[in-house]
C-alpha cells in the first residue's frame, strides 16, 4: 500500500524519521550516562513500543492507564507522576511502576509506607519558580499559582525520609539554554537536598531532536548534575521522540468562496489536532505557503458544527479540488493521544510508512468506537 491508497483521515508515522530521533536520543544517553524515558502523554502508539524500547530506557506515565500501557507494551523502567493519586488505583499503580513521583508532602505522608513496602522509589516534584516560556502560560508549570510541584517555601526537609529523587518539569518545546537557566534556579533553591538523592529527573519539554538544538550544552548540564551530586539523571521527553516523524493525511471534501476561498476537509482541528486550537498554532502543510504567497489562498476547515473548527489559512500554486490529498506535517505528537469524537467524527486511521515507501494500516476506527464512549 502507498500513501495515496490509505484511508483518510489517517495518521502516518514514518519509521525512518522515528529511528532518526531515537538515534539522537540514544547518543545523548551513551555519552552522558543519563536515562531517557518516553513521555507517553505526547506519543502512545504502542505498536511501535518494541522499536522505541530498543533505544530508550523506558516510559513515563501521568496516570494508571498510561502506567499499565508502558508496563505491558514496553516492559522497561516505568515512572509515574500525578498531581494527586486516587486511593482505589494506587496499589495497581505500584504493581506497574518502579518510580512514584508525588506532587506534595501530604501525598508522600499518605502513601510513603506502601511505596517503601513495595520496594519502589519515591520522588518529589519541585517548582523552582523559574519561568523560561513566553506566550503559553497554559503550558508553564512555573506560572504564578501553579499547582504543579512544591515551591521552596513549602518544601519540608523533615519529611524527606525515604525520598530518593527530585523531579522538575518546566520546559515546553525549548532549547538547552532554558534548561541551564532552570538548573541554576533548582540548585539555588534545592541544591542542598540534591546531595541526599539517588536520582534527579529533568522532566520533558526538551526539543532535543529539533535541528539546531544545543545538544552539547544539554550534555554538559546532565554531566554536571550527575557528577556533582552523584545521581542518576533522567529525562522524559515526549515530543522529541516523535518530532517530525508523522503526518496527518486528509482529503478535500468541498471548496467554495465566502469572504475568501474555503476548503472543507475530512479532518477536524477540534477532533484530530486539538493543539491547533489549544496552543494555538498553524500546523505545517506540505506543498503550501503563507497566505498570499501562492496565487490560490484557502481557509482550511473541518466538517464539524463548531464555527471555530478552522485549521488555518494557506496558499497553493493551484486551485484545490474535491478529493485532493493534503498532508499536515509533524502530526505524530499530541494528536492521537488527544483525539475525540465530537459530532460523531470518526477517529483517523493509524498507519506506518517504511523506508521503501510502503505503508501498513495498524488500526482503523468506526461507529462502535464512537458509541462505546457515550
From TrEMBL:
SUPFAM superfamilies (alphabetical): Alanine racemase C-terminal domain-like, PLP-binding barrel
CDD domains, per database record: PLPDE_III_CANSDC
Keyword terms, alphabetized: Decarboxylase, Lyase, Pyridoxal phosphate, Spermidine biosynthesis
InterPro entries: Ala_racemase/Decarboxylase_C, De-COase2_C, Nsp_de-COase, PLP-binding_barrel
Pfam families for this protein: Orn_DAP_Arg_deC
Lineage top rank: taxon: Bacteria
Cofactor: pyridoxal 5'-phosphate
NCBIfam families assigned: nspC (TIGR01047)
Name of the protein in question: Carboxynorspermidine decarboxylase
Organism: Blautia hominis
Amino acid at each position: 500500500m502507498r500513501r495515496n491508497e490509505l484511508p483518510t483521515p489517517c495518521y502516518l508515522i514514518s519509521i525512518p524519521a522515528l529511528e532518526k530521533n531515537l538515534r539522537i536520543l540514544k547518543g545523548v544517553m551513551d555519552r552522558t550516562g543519563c536515562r531517557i524515558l518516553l513521555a507517553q502523554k505526547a506519543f502512545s502508539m504502542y505498536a511501535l513500543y518494541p522499536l522505541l524500547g530498543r533505544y530508550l530506557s523506558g516510559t513515563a506515565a501521568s496516570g494508571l492507564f498510561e502506567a499499565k500501557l508502558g508496563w505491558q507494551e514496553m516492559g522497561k523502567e516505568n515512572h509515574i507522576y500525578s498531581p494527586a493519586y486516587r486511593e482505589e488505583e494506587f496499589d495497581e499503580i505500584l504493581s506497574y511502576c518502579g518510580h512514584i513521583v508525588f506532587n506534595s508532602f501530604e501525598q508522600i505522608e499518605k502513601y510513603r509506607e506502601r511505596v517503601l513496602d513495595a520496594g519502589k522509589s519515591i520522588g518529589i516534584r519541585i517548582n523552582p519558580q523559574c519561568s523560561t516560556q513566553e506566550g503559553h502560560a497554559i503550558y508553564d508549570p512555573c506560572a504564578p499559582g501553579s499547582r504543579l510541584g512544591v515551591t521552596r517555601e513549602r518544601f519540608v526537609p523533615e519529611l524527606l525520609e525515604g525520598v530518593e529523587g527530585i523531579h522538575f518539569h518546566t520546559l515546553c518545546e525549548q532549547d538547552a539554554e532554558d534548561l541551564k537557566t532552570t538548573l541554576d534556579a533548582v540548585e539555588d533553591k534545592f541544591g542542598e537536598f540534591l546531595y541526599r538523592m539517588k536520582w534527579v529527573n529533568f522532566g520533558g519539554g526538551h526539543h532535543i531532536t529539533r535541528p539546531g538544538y544545543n545538544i552539547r550544552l544539554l550534555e554538559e548540564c546532565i554531566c554536571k548534575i550527575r557528577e556533582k551530586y552523584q545521581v542518576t539523571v533522567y529525562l522524559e521527553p515526549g515530543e522529541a521522540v516523535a518530532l517530525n516523524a508523522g503526518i496527518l493525511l486528509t482529503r478535500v471534501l468541498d471548496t467554495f468562496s465566502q469572504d475568501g476561498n474555503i476548503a472543507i476537509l475530512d479532518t477536524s482541528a477540534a477532533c484530530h489536532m486539538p493543539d491547533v486550537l489549544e496552543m494555538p498554532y498553524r500546523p505545517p502543510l506540505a506543498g503550501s505557503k503563507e497566505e498570499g504567497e501562492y496565487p490560490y489562498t484557502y481557509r482550511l476547515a473541518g466538517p464539524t458544527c463548531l464555527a471555530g473548527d478552522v485549521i488555518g489559512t494557506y496558499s497553493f500554486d493551484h486551485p484545490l479540488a474535491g478529493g485532493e490529498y493534503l498532508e499536515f506535517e509533524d502530526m505524530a505528537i499530541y494528536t492521537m493521544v488527544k483525539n475525540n469524537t465530537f459530532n460523531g467524527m470518526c477517529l483517523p486511521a493509524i498507519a506506518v510508512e517504511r523506508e521503501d515507501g510502503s505503508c501498513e494500516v495498524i488500526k482503523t476506527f468506526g461507529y462502535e468506537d464512537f458509541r462505546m464512549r457515550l
